[in-house]
Amino acid sequence: MRNEGNDIVIEILDNGIGYRNSLATKANAHHHTSHGLDIISERITFFNAKNPYNLSYEIKDRQNHPGTVVRLRLEPNDPYNK
């Protein structure tokens, strides 16, 4: 966890097969539909509507290491600085 200006950034690193490889594996499994990211997006939309902060996330493969990085960013909503 770290501050970037007024934002709070949380990074979660893992050493698994990586995000792209995981998506490719799931694309070949026709019997399963994942709803996890859809649910997360809905919850973030709800959170952002009810709080004076904007929460966002990104998921990508790690650079120079196997695995995935998930980055959460919490930034204050400043109605005067748009």
Keywords:
single chain; 82 residues; alpha+beta; 2 helices; 4 strands; 35% strand; flat
Describe the largest sheet. Answer: 4 strands, antiparallel
Encode the helix/strand succession as letters: EEHHEE
Instruction: Give the uncertain stretches in residue-range form.
Output: none
Number of strand segments: 4
- Indicate the mean pLDDT: 85
Strand order of the largest sheet: 1-2-4-3
Number of distinct helices: 2
* Rg: 16 Å
Residues in β-strands, percent: 35-45%
Helix content: 25-40%
Please tell me about this protein's structure.
The protein is built from 2 helices and 4 strands. With 82 residues, the chain is of the alpha+beta class. Strand 1 (2-4) and strand 2 form a beta hairpin. The chain is flat. The model has no long low-confidence stretch (mean pLDDT 85).
